[in-house]
Amino acid sequence: MAETFLSPIIEKLTELLIEEGFSLKGVRKEVKSLKDELEIIEPFLKDAEAKVEKDKGFDASKAWLGQIREEAERIEDLVDDYVYRIEHHCYEGGFMGALRKACHCIKALKARYDIASEIQDIKESLQGIKDRGVGYGLRPLEQGSSSKPTNGERQDPRLGSLFMEEDEIVCIDDASEELMRMLIDGESMRSVISLVGQGGIGKTTLARKVYNDEVVKAHFDCHAWITVSQSYDMKNLLRIVSRQVRLPQRIIEEECNIDELISPLKQFLQTRRYVVVFDDVWQNDIWNVMKYALPNNNNGSRIIITTRNDNVAAVSKENSCDVVKELQIWSLEMAWQLFCKKAFRNDQFEGRCPQELEQLSYDILCKCQGLPLVIATIAGVLSTKQKSEFEWKNVLNNLTSEFEKTDIEKILSLSYFDLPHHLRRCFLYFGVFHEDYRIYDNQLYGLWIAEGFVKARSNKTLEEVAEDYLNELIQRNLVLLETKYGISRECRVHDLMYEIILTNAGEWRFCKSLKGGKSSLAERSSRLSVYGPTENVLKTVGDSRIRSVFLFGTNELSKSFVVGLGEKCKLLKVLDLSNAPLDNLPKEVGNLFHLRCLRLRRTKVKTLPKSIGKLRNLQTLDVSNTLVRELPNEINKLTNLRHVFAYSLDRPTDFSLDCFRGVKMNEGIGRLMELQTLTRVEAYPGREVGFAKELQKLRNIRSLSILKVTAEMGIALGASIEKMDHLKELTLTLINEDEVLDLRCISSPPLFLRWLQLNCRMQQLPDWIPKLYNLRMLDLKFSRLVDEPLRSLKGLPNLLFLRLLQTYDGEELHFEEGGFRKLKELRLVKLEGLKVVKIDNGALPLLEKLEFGPFPLMMEPTSFDIQQLSSLKSLEILDMPREFVLGLQPDGGPYYRKIQYVPSVKFCYKYRVDGYDVYKLGSSELLRRLQEQRN
């Protein structure tokens, strides 16, 4: 049977039956009977869902599905509550533990009696619902009656989606060039450029592409991107602008009225050239306030507004240099190009439409109304289907019925209804975040797994299955992806898709949003997102069945809120308190027996309570950028733990080992055999070698970062790393810069390593590093190598990023012809003995970003062959000698020709431990600074 929303519930009951502890007489029989009843009902769901999706018999079928879903939620609550009552407290030892266990046995008998009684009541309700469904004319649909591909038929979703570029989403080169000219050329007066068009036409994509362009970044002193949307707070918008243009933090955080926020922002921008984007503006009053905060300073400043509302654009056009640009629907030729690229993306078709599908494809394309988002989304649906006339006609028929409603959102909803149920839940999960929220893929995987959305597959971890899920959503163009070097991936959804998510999440009680103490979406939901104050939230909700809680923009967080969660919401699986004003995690958190994900990042929490050891189901613990310095001994009891995040960087621009900070862990880390992520943990003080040996037990580790490594750990650490067959990311940081770490003992490095960061002194570059053919990012700091490392590294076939910081003590670096063929970004930092950098013709052919300095012995630009880097888009020069910088200036600099082709050139001078003064090429401020250096 194809899956339905009942499938996870049936699987949950099956798991309950397998467990020996739940086979007491009466309970097993009732659970099996309930599972059988759901399996009988499940075929009827397919017919009801089909009627709802096609809008036939909508009211009756939808109401019937709602009744089934309500009973399914009762069953899920019942099972989780039963497991809580059976297993909670059963791990405690000692006399009190034995006493509690005796009491627990009595409570267990009561729990088994209660579940049997509750199951009987649910079965009676289900029987009545099933009978009503038959009365509505519902019939059981067998497997094969749906055109959706089964899990076994679906192609690998990673094909064509892992390395998607932004220009594959929409072809907007001509429009972006025109917009760039508007930003950079023209009047010195401040001008407002309004991009107007219906949803899905590409306004945001066009604005984002130009905003992120290196030429635009270099042209303006200050940059800000603000997503406004329909619900907004004017004070918050002003604070976001102020924060992004880097107004001093104390001014931003002060409590004040709108006038008091406008005044310092206007004064700060008065002497600067700025570009500010207001994305998705719905109301006129945004501009009526913002125009007073953004001064007309005759510096060539620009403001971009994207809107669906013609009135918004009209109001913002106040003088002759303001522009209203209406985006037009795409021509058939442009639409066909995008459609084929998306629908026929695999190796067999290579973006070309088979002749037998051409007419049907054109018919489908005509229904997309020339809107790139609709084209990409519908083509994404087709890309998952068999390339047959039957499948194409089925999609066309569905589109025709939706098109008659003349509602783009309903057409886009087809892509949601086409999803199998396990992907629907994953897609709806974006509804717990606010619009335009960006989340890293690995964080998303952890949340999906914690919620139980990810189904285990043979030979794959749950995270790998979750990655498949996300890649399929990306392939269907439901989720947008921004990636850097193929490792760090940020996800978000389009605003139209977000509206579809909210609609369906509300109808099916998937999640609830509380803003200012007021509820939106469904009154009873499994997931709660709180925006603003938390006071009285639990009283407002009045629901102990919540599975997940997220806090956003909370300025006040009472201890009673967290205590109340621990006492009231005992079925909670996800608790995300990131960025909340929290300095103490109450011990009551230990009552959350079902908790699988606990995120405390960027809070003021200093210690974790010992009660955290009760969270036996915890999979993810995130204490990154908190004040936690040591994890309690009880952490080692959490044998289901998969991810521990504890990283932070105290001073990002401080070139020393002191800027790295992690957490201490007590002995016993080897018990956490499910660990896949461990960042950053300090080696056991005084028992470093034992710590290194204990790491051998972590055979599932994918990402590992260790601080305070000592020289004596070298051999043991190398032996452990050799056993980590699945390792993809490795960071090692030495305890101080005097010790030398020898890693040459590694003979068989992890083959899948993609990220390697070594913050340690080494006598020699290990010969296994050049064998890492999957390596994409290499970061070598404080190595102090005597031998030049480039000859060994130049052959790494997939290397995209390379940083050498105090890596080499020699006088010359030589990038040889044919070397570093895929490198995109190169940073050469604080190579104090360096005098010459040679770059052969044909070396670094794809390099786009170069950062270098300080090199105190390199006095003239003739010593650096920058002119060989034909693909360079961004150049940042750090604290180089005065003579070197002067030689590159456009007015009188004899070596300006070496860099005149680079779109963005900046000169950076460190002025404090965590910041730089940044100057543009040829600016009067830079020349004034150089003059002061001379004096």
Q: Any key phrases for this structure?
A:
alpha/beta; Rossmann fold; 20-stranded mixed sheet; five-stranded parallel sheet; 28 helices; 36% helix; globular
Blueprint of the fold:
Blueprint: H1 7-18, H2 27-54, H3 58-87, H4 94-135, H5 173-184, E1 191-196, H6 203-211, H7 214-219, E2 222-227, H8 234-244, H9 249-253, H10 258-269, E3 274-281, H11 285-293, E4 302-307, H12 310-316, E5 323-326, H13 332-343, H14 358-367, H15 372-383, H16 389-403, H17 408-417, H18 421-428, E6 439-440, H19 441-451, H20 462-475, E7 480-484, E8 488-492, H21 495-507, E9 512-515, E10 518-521, E11 527-531, H22 537-541, E12 548-552, H23 559-568, E13 574-576, E14 597-599, E15 620-622, E16 643-645, E17 648-649, E18 660-661, E19 663-664, E20 677-682, H24 688-694, E21 703-709, H25 714-722, E22 729-734, E23 755-759, E24 777-781, H26 790-793, E25 801-805, E26 812-815, E27 825-829, E28 836-839, E29 849-853, E30 874-878, H27 882-886, E31 904-912, E32 915-920, H28 924-934
Parallel strand pairs: 1-4, 1-5, 2-3, 3-4, 9-11, 11-12, 12-13, 13-14, 14-15, 15-16, 16-20, 19-20, 20-21, 21-22, 22-23, 23-24, 24-25, 25-27, 26-28, 27-29, 29-30, 30-31
Antiparallel strand pairs: 6-8, 7-8, 9-10, 17-18, 31-32
Keywords: Nucleotide-binding, Plant defense, Repeat
InterPro entries: Apaf_helical (IPR042197), Disease_R_plants (IPR044974), LRR_dom_sf (IPR032675), LRR_R13L4/SHOC2-like (IPR055414), NB-ARC (IPR002182), P-loop_NTPase (IPR027417), RX-like_CC (IPR038005), Rx_N (IPR041118)
Organism: Morus notabilis
